[in-house]
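Hallway conversation turned thread

IA: we were arguing at lunch whether anyone had actually written out Malate synthase G end to end. Turns out nobody had. So, for the record, here is the sequence (698 residues) and right after it the structure tokens. Reply here if something looks off.
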Amino acid sequence: MSDRTDKSGLDVDSALARFVDEQVLGPLGVEPQMFWTGFAALAAELTPKNRALLEKRDELQARIDAWHKDRRGKPIDMAEYKAFLQDIGYLVPEPGDFTIGTQNVDPEIATMAGPQLVVPILNARFLLNAANARWGSLYDALYGTDALDAPAARPGGYDEERGAAVIARGRQFLDETLPLASGSWADIEGSHDGKLKDESQYVGKTERGLLFKSNGLHIEVVFDPGSQVGKTDKASIADIVLEAALTTIADLEDSVAAVDAEDKLVGYSNWLGIIRGDLEESFEKGGSTMTRSLNGDKRYTTDEGDEHSLPGRSLMFVRNVGHLMTNPAILLPDGSEIPEGIMDAVITGAIGAQDVRGLGKYGNSRCGSIYIVKPKMHGPEECAFTNELFDRVEDLMDLPRHTMKVGVMDEERRTSANLGACIHAVKDRIVFINTGFLDRTGDEIHTSMQAGPMVRKAQMKSSEWLPAYEKRNVGIGLRHGLSGRAQIGKGMWPAPDLMGQMMIEKIGHLDAGANTAWVPSPTAATLHALHYHQKDVFAVQKGLGEVPGVDALLTIPLADGVNWSEEEVREELDNNAQGLLGYVVRWIDQGVGCSKVPDINDVGLMEDRATLRISSQHMANWLLHGICTEEQVMDSLRRMAAKVDEQNAGDPFYEPLSGNEDGVAFKAAKDLVFKGVEQPSGYTEPLLHHYRQVKKAG
């Protein structure tokens, strides 16, 4: 049992209490007794409301389950189904015309369009890499990935042939983005050659070269005749550096395994290090120790001699957890665990107050805002609760109203079906809506679990509800004035090694009107930035048409009349089981919440809890409706355990699954499937947290 401290009736882990008192409140000049008294009062008032919202989720689910059971085997009449959902309060009336009122939003969110990173907050090195991904080398991104259509680099030092192909592609980008009045960038022979067709694209001189601007994003052309690349280039261009990850989400939620005070303290400490600007991480590379820290700003001088700077770092959001989970880091007076979302809001909000007060080395928001992404909310009442929670934290920290901005993840069915009302509930602090295919699919399966067997997982992408979901998210956001004030986002490209394919497909997110989209790495951010030079998203948004109605969104992806062969069932179970085990074994045994996990075809995919939710719910659904048997599921789990062991053979910390069915990780994987129907909203967190705590206890 960890050392505990009483704080105004809250039973707090002592290390966490010390961190808050000394490192968070101390620099703010906030008296700890006053803070903890206010925190205790806030928790006492809001915890029952939080619990009531979760009870409503369960009550709605029970009524939907009963409705489907009563009609099992009959086709769903959409008019009847919609009337039922309205009658039980699952569907609410849409609000009338309104425009969001959010103020003091940084340009990276409001008026610029570009890539967004999501990074596990527990890994300081990854967090620093992401924060520093505001600027990325196009030459490095092209040289080291399959985004360049040229022979791969030969091993053993710099490959000049590959380098020449990179340079040619770079010149092509410059010709397309910063066209010269005459001729090509390939023809210039010095840093002062060539006049731009549009002189307004020129910004000034940096320490290393020239700075330009296109579609609101900056481009630095670096000249260095002494560098390996510059000395072979007739214009001495050594690199093209792109403004890339405009924003980054430091994630306390799906991409981390944080189950207790020890884990939460790492996350909160790293967030404080980002806000203060002094986060550092040392690591071994190539036999020597390297230390990573936050980049400074990029300085430039205009032709008139005026000196300016551009941010050297991504604008940072922090993603709190949703309303479901509790955490033992703080116990309430009745001995129960505090709702983790309440704890996250108070502590990340208090840390953010240091930025608002200008206490950091660099500063995050130049507009005095704290940016918090709130996931997994079900409908407008839960959004309104978040609004009230943020009000209370602002009052506790003496922050102006609506300092704490909210990003709403549109990833639950009740939220996407009532999106206008959800936006309305947070209309004066909303800065972001984003779709999440995997979580949304998990909720699609769970909400309609009793309706019948679902289509195969791969077919979900061609289901009727999905395009309606994506189009409604953009259309409803635009209808309520998010363009120019907030981000309308799209989900993750999951394959960090398949950058060539990403460059073909991900421009579709801009065509759909999204002014940001998630990428899995700083390199991917640099490459995806090319898309935002190709398309002016804000112009695209102006030309978008009608918003699909709710009927398509509510069309359940049932596999009506399908009779799969035994081989097809086995193939689907294997696919789900392999992904499930590959992710769970790292989460439970090593506390890794997000990593590149090989899929059944050995393609590395970025996996987090959302991928696990869909796999486990899909298997639970097929089991419930007799598409497969318990024996078939266990057969798949056993065979895929051997495959996952093989895929992790090079990891010295890996604990094999095969022959270890009594082990904690295998038990967790089994429960996720066999107890999947009864999990709240199909979430994986309750079981994962339980088994991780068992593992940590030894």
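OS: looked through it. Residues 32-70 form the longest helix (39 residues).
IA: good, adding that to the notes. The chain is about 45% helix and 15% strand.
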